[in-house]
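Can't paste images in this forum, so I'm doing it all in text. The chain is below; anyone willing to post the predicted structure tokens underneath?
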Amino acid sequence: MFGGHAVNISFAQNERKSVTLTSTERRGQGIHSHLLGILTKMKDSFRTIGLAGTTVGVLDGTAAVVVAGLRGVPPDRVFQYISSGLLGRSSYEGGAATVILGVILHFIVAFGAATIFVLLARSLGFIRKNPLILGPLYGIAVYFFMSEVVVALSNVTRQPRTLSGTVTGILIHIFFVGLPIALITSHSPQPMST
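Text version of the structure:
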């Protein structure tokens, strides 16, 4: 037996046979259980990222279109502005293709922001417990990262910064980026310990 454990396995309706598991087989079951726990945690994280990324993509995109519309800028220009980060000024002459590219890039950024927050929350438990504080702070951090790093490194033609534009951008990122991501994450299934 060498430390093996006897296990009854049913092969037919009334037939039972005793099987001895070796320590290697027991370790294999432990690894299987561990991997199953990791996959469950990943599935829950992907679901949370998907919901948060989609929600933020829609909310932030809608807010951008509304704010731009109040200044007389049509919705297609909002997303061509985003695609100009890759294409430069030629984005504004690209028609529907550059609008679609802008929408895709916008959602990539939204999913990126959601992914970072969910992974941080999975590692640092206090993040999920304080969504009303850490969500707005995360939104502000995303705003400054986007404006000072991403836009600065892109091909976007930068406009002079205004106080009203900065305040509007920060408020949008608090209420339509950081807070939704934090609330969705805080209400998602608790990560399993493996």
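The radius of gyration is 25 Å. The first strand starts at residue 5 and ends at 10.
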